[in-house]
Specification:
Elements lengths: L2 E3 L5 E2 L12 E3 L16 H37 L13 H34 L8 E8 L2 E6 L8 E4 L1 E5 L4 E7 L4 E4 L7 E3 L5 E5 L5 E7 L11 E7 L1 H12 L8 H12 L32 E2 L4 E2 L2 H9 L1 H4 L12 H13 L2
Parallel strand pairs: 4-8, 7-13
Antiparallel strand pairs: 1-3, 2-12, 4-5, 5-6, 8-11, 9-10, 9-12, 12-13, 14-15
Helix pairs in contact: 1-2, 4-7, 5-7
The protein binds dinuclear copper ion.
Dinuclear copper ion binds next to loops.
Length: about 350
């Protein structure tokens, strides 16, 4: 069967418990893409960027048409004059030719470039304005090929860390401090903001704001390796009270599994040394992860897996655990050597981490 990986951006109204199917591998002809995002602004910064895009398109169209007319015109005129072509192009006075060259070759491009520069710089200034004091601050770290978003707390032990999912309060500017743990990536949620590079040796600041509650899909916009195209994330804008409730729930540590299967899964999690990369805060026997992997304290509360490329359902989670590399070639997640029953137990444990 021919499969295509659908790359697209769309906004959805937030439905409690809804599982998105965006970006999953879908049979040819089935697309979840509702509309491209860049020209569908969902926040103040994107509102400022869209007119620049349309302005450049309009200017480019007019210039392309003008060039086409100027190319075709002499051909038509020359053909009309073909019977007595002896005069050739010497009949254009040199002065007139100079005027055309200076006007269309120097003055017009200069004026257009200056206008575009002024338009671009003024847009850059408005989209890069700082967030007011007291705004929510989120540290976003990019990895090959996923994202960690952390919400710093007064006590570092209370820091909330989620993967590939950035919750923000709707209608408020939120400051993102962007950095990379390995190579250069670029953060881009087209409906909310322009793109900004994430560098391994520095922090860039980006302010995003969503006008309406909803899910805003984002992607890495800087080629960073084999899984660059499937390095996605989702920004979830919620009413401030829902955001606060989400943050409160995420701050609490995980409780130990109680059901039989989940208990067996928790033991497997320890035996397979999953904790070397994945932190489960508060779980018995789980030490601090020393290698980078998504924090799994509340993994079952998340909407997607594998950098927002597959929905977070028990079936997809089992598929991911059986062979991560088949889902995301190039992922650093190794395939645990487990039987089908053991995979089911591990899924039961991870599903208990709500
Ligand atoms: Cu990360 Cu491209």
């Amino acid at each position: 069967m021919i499969e295509i990986r659908v790359v697209g951006y769309h906004r959805r109204r937030l439905r409690p418990g809804a599982v998105t199917s965006m970006g999953s591998v879908m049979p040819l002809g089935v697309s979840s893409v509702e509309r491209p995002g860049q020209l569908d602004p969902g926040g103040p910064a994107a509102d400022d960027i869209a007119p620049l895009w349309w302005g450049l398109l309009a200017a480019g169209t007019v210039i392309a048409l003008l060039v086409a007319v100027l190319l075709v015109l002499p051909m038509v005129r020359r053909r009309r004059r073909m019977p007595d072509a002896s005069a050739d192009h010497d009949d254009v006075p040199q002065q007139l030719a100079n005027r055309w060259i200076i006007g269309l070759g120097v003055v017009m491009p200069g004026a257009i470039l200056i206008a575009v520069l002024v338009f671009s710089v003024s847009t850059m200034r408005t989209v890069s304005r700082a967030a007011p004091a007291g705004s929510v601050v989120i540290d976003v770290v990019s990895y090959q090929f996923w994202w960690a978003a952390s919400y710093p707390a007064d006590d570092p032990d209370d820091d909330v860390i989620v993967a590939n999912e950035i919750h923000i309060p709707v209608g408020e500017p939120v400051e993102l401090r962007l950095t990379s743990a390995d190579v250069i990536h670029s953060f881009w949620a087209p409906e909310l903001q322009g793109k900004l590079d994430m560098l391994p040796d520095g922090t860039n600041t980006l302010v995003i704001e969503a006008d309406e509650p909803g899910e805003y899909l984002g992607a890495c916009a800087e080629f960073c390796g084999v899984q660059h195209a499937l390095m996605r994330f989702v920004v979830i804008a919620e009413p401030p009270d829902e955001f606060a409730a989400w943050l409160f729930a995420q701050r609490s540590p995980a409780s130990d599994a109680t059901a039989d299967a989940a208990q067996r899964g928790q033991e497997l999690f320890a035996a397979e040394d999953c904790g070397a990369c994945h932190t489960v805060r508060g779980a018995a026997e789980a030490g601090a992860a020393t290698m980078p992997g998504p924090d799994l304290t509340h993994v079952a509360s998340r909407r997607t897996l594998a950098a927002a490329t597959i929905p977070n359902t028990p079936v997809e989670l089992a598929r991911w655990l059986r062979d991560p590399d088949a889902v995301k070639p190039g992922t650093t997640m190794p395939a645990p050597e487990l039987t089908a029953d053991e995979i089911d137990d591990l899924v039961a444990y991870l599903e208990s981490l709500r």
